[in-house]
Amino acid sequence: MKKGTPKRSAVAASIVDFAYDNTSYQIDTQHRKVYRKWIEVESARTYLIMSAWSALNVKKVV
Predict the structure, then answer these.
(1) CA distance readout (Å), 5 to 1, 2, 9, 10
(2) Which candidate among 21, 22, 29, 41 keeps its CA 20 to 30 Å from the CA of 10?
(3) Which residues pair with 4 in a beta bridge?
(4) From residue 37, how far is each of 23, 30, 31 by CA, in Å?
């Protein structure tokens, strides 16, 4: 590898299934995108779903 060439790290995609408002969504946590049946959801709805998912997945600090 040449000096100064950036190294690429292999990052696995992190897809999470999440049920919100009686609908199943797929959340790409790495890119912070939300999909329904693998079609991207509009921005306003994405914000609501990501907020709900984040609130449920907050790690409690003791």
Answers:
(1) 7, 6, 13, 16
(2) 41
(3) none
(4) 10, 18, 17
Please give the angle made by the CA atoms of 9, 17 and 55, to the nearest 5 degrees: 90
| Predicted model pTM | 0.66
Task: Count each helix (H run) and each strand (E run) in the chain, helices first.
Answer: 1, 4
- Tens-place pLDDT, residues 25-50: 999 999 999 999 989 999 999 999 99
| Long-range CB pairs of 22-26, under 8 A, 24+ apart, other chains included | 25/49
Q: Are 5 and 12 in contact (CB under 8 A)?
A: no
Residue % of the chain over a pLDDT of 70: 73
Query: Cα–Cα distance between 38 and 18 in angstroms, integer?
Result: 13
> Can you read off the two tokens belonging to residue 56?
């449920």
